Amino acid sequence: MQKGQAENLSGHIPAYIQVASALRRRIETGEWLPGEKISTLEELEEEFQRARVTVRQAVGLLEKEGLLKRQQGRGTFVAEQVNDRRWLTLETSWSAIIRSIKRNVPRFIEVANPPSHPRLSPDEGKLADAYGFLRSLQLRDGLPYAVVNVHIEKGIFDEYYDEFMEHTALAVFETLRGTVVKKAHQTMTIGTADPEVAGLLGISLSAPIAECRCVVTSKDDVVIYVGEITYPSDCIRLHMDLLQDETAVASAEAEVEVPSPKPRRRRKTAA
Q1: How does pLDDT run across 113-135, given as a tens digit for each residue?
Q2: Is residue 171 a contact partner of residue 98, using CB atoms and an 8 Å limit?
Q3: How many angstroms separate the CA atoms of 63 and 55, rounded?
Q4: How many beta carbons lie within 10 A of that of residue 230, not counting itself?
Q5: E-state strands within 124-258
Q6: Domain 88-239 maps to which CATH number in 3.20.190.10, 3.30.9.10, 3.40.50.300, 3.40.1410.10?
Q7: Where does the chain hold its CATH 3.40.1410.10 domain(s)?
Q8: How many whole angstroms separate alpha carbon 8 and alpha carbon 111?
Q9: Full-prediction pTM beyond 0.70?
């Protein structure tokens, strides 16, 4: 790309993410091929009209993503092979979800005007009188990988506030006393990152994201928890055993003792 032909960058998200997004597109579209040496920091600084520290952050972000490799004394190159970074498996059962998030430590984000209650579809349950709201980032190796918004029924929120400040909200629900969980369901949709999510996760504007929504109701069908978790698409995968039920049935059938057939009585014949 010639100087002066840099992508038109918006000022709504951090500058280094904007630059990283433009460079990522060059790799994804094949403009920069695997093993190819990319432009120097000086060239990128002039092309994008950004400070050296901004360009260095952008290149560093793509290095962390495994898209670029820096070689001492030679420069920075497009990675020959991009490793599968989808390390997070989306679980599909209550107990597995709790196990997968139990040790997570959220980094909370202050929200000036939090929403007073979650938006519910008619089949998700009834609204409680009031809710507490939390927004947080989930991190791995110091890097954010999820933006989490949760609404928690106000009585539960107030009683277990200290626990919610130390652990992921859904994991706390496993310890609730006197609260019966009647239903819990999770849905996943695919979308694109808005400026706020892009800035928090360090991804490009309109990058693909996975949005998971978990709704938990009490025995009287009141919604006591709504969690909306946004992941960058390149860190997650969904695995389902499509033959799990059939295998279980087959195993059960194999364990049933089938009585041996009685020996057939031989018919006597006339001498």
Answers
A1: 999 999 999 899 999 999 999 99
A2: yes
A3: 12
A4: 19
A5: 131-140, 143-153, 181-192, 208-218, 223-232, 236-238
A6: 3.40.1410.10
A7: 88-239
A8: 30
A9: no
